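Regression test case RT-17, inverse folding.

Input:
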């Protein structure tokens, strides 16, 4: 295998070697990807998948990197970034056809402009649609899974697959899309609404986030909520606010956020997560589980 000779020439945006992933994560930490590509279209994506399959090259899919802790040793194999080439929203008869690289902000804004209701909750979620579908992202009582009519993906054999509503299942911060392939598009079923009212609700949600969430780099909620209690309150009551390892700190504004105060490494964040988990276990007997996905190798 000579990936640079074989793959680089067919990719419009080229192939990067040892690409630092801290550039692509909201925590601004993470070591390098051995190889990194941003396919320019579906055809390129299929070629990349077929190549990785043929050569047993591990493939990792990256959206906006807002729910990821990429460890300091980085990711072996090929990281495939689903970005702006897959960003589009088409509206048709109360439905939306959305590319997986579309930001949730852009998606909710476009829906509201078209007078389509249901995506107001998504306005402040910083991820892409692809990542949101994998995670079943949600806020303020809404979640993306409830709007999905069908999904187009390319599986790890390079085959195009359509999954319809009855083949999909979404639950709290997960879905049965994990491990199925690269999501490229989704069709969303919407209701009609008044654009002015939709924007008013979105404005309210944005303000609530600004009020409650820290502004330093983070990955949103680190731990999953328990059925009867938010993880943030549990950590706060256990005395976790302000705990710090290296440049990583449990936010004083929201105890379920770990922020990068400027110099954090992924190891700082990982160790702080472990310290928070231990504190909560000792104080309450509860086991916190991460909501963020931890990927790559420690250095
Ligand atoms: C400040 C802040 C606030 C947040 N608030 C919320 C919130 O209110 N609600 C909430 O649910 N989340 C929230 N999050 C977390 C995060 O934004 C969501 O989980 C988001 O949906 C992740 O999307 P992403 O594109 O960043 O995915 P990534 O972090 O890049 O990836 C997440 C997972 O999805 C997979 N993936 C990504 N794209 C694809 C694709 N096209 N095909 C297949 N797999 C793919 C990745 O391999 C990975 O397993 C917040 C994060 C931050 C930083």
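Golden output:
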């Amino acid at each position: 295998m000579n990936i640079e000779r074989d793959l680089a020439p067919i990719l419009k945006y080229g192939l990067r070697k040892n690409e630092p992933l801290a550039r692509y994560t909201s925590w601004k930490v993470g070591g390098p990807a051995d190889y990194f590509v941003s396919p320019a279209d579906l055809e390129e994506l299929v070629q990349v998948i077929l190549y990785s399959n043929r050569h047993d090259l591990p493939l990792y899919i990256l959206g906006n990197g807002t729910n990821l802790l990429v460890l300091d040793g980085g990711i072996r194999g090929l990281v495939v970034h689903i970005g702006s080439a897959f960003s589009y929203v088409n509206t048709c008869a109360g439905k939306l056809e959305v590319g997986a690289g579309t930001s949730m902000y852009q998606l909710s804004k476009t829906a509201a402009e078209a007078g389509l209701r249901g995506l107001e909750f998504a306005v402040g979620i910083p991820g892409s649609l692809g990542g949101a579908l994998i995670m079943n992202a949600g806020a303020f009582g809404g979640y993306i899974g409830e709007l999905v009519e069908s999904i187009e993906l390319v599986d790890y054999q390079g085959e195009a697959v359509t999954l319809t509503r009855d083949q999909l299942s979404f639950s709290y911060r997960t879905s049965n899309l994990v491990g199925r392939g690269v999501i490229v598009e989704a069709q969303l079923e919407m209701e009609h609404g008044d654009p002015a009212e939709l924007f008013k609700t979105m404005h309210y949600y944005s303000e609530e986030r600004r009020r409650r969430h820290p502004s330093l780099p983070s990955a949103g909620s680190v731990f999953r909520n328990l059925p009867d209690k938010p993880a943030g309150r549990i950590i706060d009551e256990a005395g976790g606010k302000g705990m710090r390892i290296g440049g990583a700190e449990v936010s004083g504004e929201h105890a379920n956020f770990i922020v990068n105060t400027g110099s954090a490494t992924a190891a700082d964040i990982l160790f702080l997560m472990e310290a928070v988990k231990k504190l909560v276990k000792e104080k309450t007997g509860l086991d916190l589980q991460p909501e963020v996905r931890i990927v790559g190798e420690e250095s």
